[in-house]
Design a protein that fits this description.
- By secondary structure, the chain is an alpha+beta fold.
- It is built from five helices and nine strands, in the order αββββαββββαβαα.
- The strands form two sheets. Strands 1-2-3-4-5 form a five-stranded antiparallel sheet, with helices on both faces. A four-stranded mixed sheet has the order 6-7-9-8.
- Helix 3 crosses helix 4.
């Protein structure tokens, strides 16, 4: 079989994997990590012989237990860009405070032009979010949350604003502990 047919077959297998729900697990590397491709951007560079395309992939990786990482990979081929994004996301894993299956309190996250509002929701509500916000919250393991994305529609800005909002979350026990250290009382 020629090299071209082999590479085409690999690409088709990769596409079949992605069609499921956009995520596939990487169990062998770090436990139960799942990855989800949020956005793939195609860039064109005009050269003497025509156009040369490059691809950039925004990928989120999480264990659905409070740990998440976001990565941005660039390459000449889509699978390579996704692979680089996944590797960068795994290197940038961080943990966040969760209140069972929802967020502890309301928070607004801002990054560049993107603004995201996260609000706690009653059990059974589900993830009311779209695009990059939904991907981040699902990979984090949040089951019930209300969100509103305002400002920019840029996927990177929205994802970073979501991470900013999650970074502002503080659990009741943590606030109680912090106030006890300073001598304040919780009413």
């Amino acid at each position: 079989m020629s090299d071209f047919k082999k590479s085409e077959k690999k690409t088709n297998n990769f596409r079949k994997k992605q069609r499921n729900d956009g995520s596939h697990s990487a169990k062998a590397e770090r436990g139960e990590l799942k990855e989800k491709v949020i956005h793939v951007n195609r860039c064109a560079k005009v050269v003497k012989g025509g156009r040369r395309f490059g691809f950039a992939a925004l990928v989120v990786v999480g264990d659905q237990k409070g740990r998440i990482g976001v990565g941005y990979g660039k390459a000449k081929e889509v699978p390579e860009a996704i692979k680089k994004g996944t590797e960068r996301a795994k290197k940038n894993m961080t943990s966040f405070q969760l209140n069972e299956a929802t967020v502890p309190h309301m928070a607004m996250g801002i990054s560049d032009g993107g603004r995201v509002l996260l609000r706690p929701a009653a059990p059974g509500t589900g993830v009311i979010a779209g695009g990059g916000v939904r991907a981040v919250l699902e990979m984090l393991g949040i089951k019930d949350v209300l969100t509103k994305s305002m400002g920019s529609n840029n996927q990177i800005a929205v994802v970073n604003a979501t991470l900013d909002a999650l970074g502002k979350m503080r659990s009741y026990a943590l606030i109680k502990q912090m106030r006890a250290a300073t001598g304040d009382e919780i009413i």
